[in-house]
Write a structure and sequence with these properties.
Elements (H helix, E strand, L loop, with lengths): L1 E6 L8 E4 L5 E7 L6 E6 L2 E9 L6 E6 L2 E9 L6 E3 L6 E5 L4 E5 L5 E8 L6 E6 L5 H31 L2
Antiparallel strand pairs: 1-2, 1-12, 2-3, 3-4, 4-5, 5-6, 6-7, 7-8, 9-10, 10-11, 11-12
Amino acid sequence: MKYYLKENFRFLYADGQLYDENDNVAYYYENKTLMYPKIGLYKGDKMIGFVKKNFTWFLRQYDLFLDDEFVGSLDQKFTWFRSQLDLSDLGWTIEGDLFDWHYEIYDEEGFLIARVDQELFRLTQRFYIDIYDDEKEELIILLVIALNQFDKDRAAAASAASSSAHSSH
């Protein structure tokens, strides 16, 4: 199945809609909390899952839940020069350029289950998600939402660090 994700304009927290190939809203997601982000994924009026951000000292962690059951985490790992993300709970891997939003997701057996690409030159982010494994569709969408939130958190931290450096001069 092919979707495109159209994000609403927000700085810190993600919310938006996923449209199918016929431009119908198939899913939507929104963050209803400010201090402890919990981004709900909805199909119609029913919340089918959510991403919960955990606060740690330096590294970020995003737990994925389907039907209120924990299914895995997206964990940031410590590296010196770049961000590395771990999906070992799921056994999945991500290949490509995560921060330019051109990447592929592989399952625990090494099969390609999704491809994500960003449309450039837009005020709000818009992603295309090709899902090749229908049984894992909702979990793949939750992971893409978690990756989007990770990117927002990373950008906000870089902006804060930059502002702090400029104000100390």
